[in-house]
């Protein structure tokens, strides 16, 4: 009789496994092929083992082991349950992650492409298994906070909760291990001279300004093993083009002075500055422009603005570490106190040239008798365009290092300003192909 019951239970377990397999088969094959097969084999074995146990005769330590095995099996099933039910979606277990890449997608295969299935399966599963963001974030939190280990070479863990971005040879630059070659200096110089000549022929002033890397301003918060130097590639370039009639606006002295006074100019969990840094940079830039354009007013001071400080979650560096939800930061907002003649934010559909929404072209207009400004920059523009827009009758801010002649011909500005973050210095030597606006 016991044998009959055992066979019956095993048969039911087999049918349950088979039914679950076909249930999983309604989802993409990548998942059922792996998890379904495991369940198909493991469930009958587990049921068989339980049937052979005589619970009343089990010792205390054996019961503990049995409970441990059961709990362990339940835990390893959580990703499967979440995969099938999406229970973690929009819950506290769904951690925000921005990996700055497109996650693998599941695509149907033709028969002659079946040999590519294993790689597609592996890549897709690694990017989409249940509770993935929670596991990665928790693992990175333990490594980062408890052991001081960065999960990516692009992020350096500093002191006082500072994170530093290491890309485009930024760290090697500030350690004095790299320099610009004569060929690179000549190429950048030639590019700048050509752009200046093009603009001069049209009666347009040309200004170039660089924005310092965070590790150059807060070098004291880098790990002690890094001995930074005072001169970097930007100093080479400034010296090289000085006698060629090109002045690169340098804001470092003002930044270093403000940082030493305790002012936070960059976001701790982000590679970018904040609006404290944006204000100081705008003051230095406007001061330089005013020397050639006296119709522009004196730079506004911090007392001319209403400043609010708020908590800001995450940043691009905490995203790279998978710690967006764990590391808080600060956000500073500025509003000009003089509201008699506010600038207007203009939407220009013709400038919607990017597929990514965050690469936005900002346009400001203000009813004042001052020049028009066109700016080429990168993501740092988000923290300075609001300040610069207070000085010009019209100002356009383009997220691009390309010298867009089509923009210049359309806008016909009085001033073109090219700003670049220090680590992007090599962008000045490039001439990328772009597609002019129609």
Task: Give the structure's gist in a few sentences.
With 438 residues, the chain is an alpha/beta fold. The protein is 41% helix and 13% strand.
Overview of the structural elements:
The chain has 438 residues and is an alpha/beta fold. The strands form three sheets. Strands 4-3-11-9-10-8-7 form a seven-stranded mixed sheet. The longest helix has 26 residues. The N and C termini lie far apart (85 Å).
Distinct helical segment count: 14
Main beta-sheet annotation: 7 strands, mixed
Distance from first to last alpha carbon: 85 Å
Low-confidence spans: pLDDT under 50, at least 5 residues? 24-30
Question: Based on helices, strands and strand pairing, what is the structural class?
Answer: alpha/beta
Radius of gyration: 30 Å
Work out the strand percent: 5-15%
Quaternary structure classification: single chain
């Amino acid at each position: 009789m016991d044998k009959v019951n055992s066979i019956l239970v095993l048969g039911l377990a087999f049918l349950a496994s088979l039914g679950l397999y076909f249930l999983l088969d309604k989802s993409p094959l990548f998942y059922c092929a792996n998890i379904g097969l495991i369940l198909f084999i493991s469930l009958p074995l587990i049921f068989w083992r339980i049937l052979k146990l005589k619970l009343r005769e089990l010792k205390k330590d054996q019961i503990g082991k049995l409970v441990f095995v059961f709990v362990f099996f339940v835990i390893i099933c959580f990703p499967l349950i979440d995969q099938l039910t999406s229970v973690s979606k929009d819950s506290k277990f769904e951690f925000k992650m921005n990996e700055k890449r497109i996650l693998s997608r599941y695509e149907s295969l033709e028969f002659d492409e079946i040999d590519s299935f294993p790689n597609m399966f592996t890549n897709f599963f690694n990017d989409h298994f249940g509770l993935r963001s929670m596991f990665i974030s928790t693992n990175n939190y333990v490594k980062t906070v408890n052991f001081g280990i960065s999960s990516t070479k692009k992020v350096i863990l500093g002191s006082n909760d500072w994170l530093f971005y290491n890309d485009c040879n930024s760290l090697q630059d500030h350690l004095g291990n790299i320099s610009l070659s004569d060929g690179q200096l000549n190429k950048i110089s030639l590019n700048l001279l050509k752009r200046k000549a093009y603009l001069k022929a049209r009666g347009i002033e040309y200004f170039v300004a660089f924005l310092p890397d965070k590790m150059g301003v807060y070098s004291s918060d880098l790990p002690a093993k890094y001995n930074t130097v005072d001169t970097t590639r930007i100093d080479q370039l400034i010296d090289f083009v000085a006698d060629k009639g090109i002045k690169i606006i340098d804001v470092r002295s003002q930044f270093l002075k403000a940082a030493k006074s305790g002012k936070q100019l960059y976001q701790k969990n982000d590679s970018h500055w904040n609006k404290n840094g944006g204000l100081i940079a705008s003051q230095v830039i406007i001061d330089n422009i005013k020397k050639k354009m006296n119709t522009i007013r004196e730079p506004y001071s911090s007392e001319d603005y209403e400043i609010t400080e708020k908590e800001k979650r995450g940043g691009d560096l905490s995203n790279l570490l998978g710690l967006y939800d764990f590391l808080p930061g600060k956000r500073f907002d500025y509003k000009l106190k003089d509201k008699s003649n506010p600038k207007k934010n203009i939407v220009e559909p013709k400038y919607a040239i990017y597929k990514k929404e965050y690469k936005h072209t900002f346009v400001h207009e203000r009813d004042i008798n001052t020049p028009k400004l066109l700016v080429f920059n990168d993501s740092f523009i988000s923290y300075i365009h609001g300040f610069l827009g207070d000085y010009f009758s019209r100002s356009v801010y383009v997220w691009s290092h390309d010298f867009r002649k089509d923009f210049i011909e359309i806008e016909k500005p009085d001033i073109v300003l090219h700003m670049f973050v220090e680590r992007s210095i090599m962008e000045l030597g490039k001439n990328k192909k772009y597609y002019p606006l129609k």
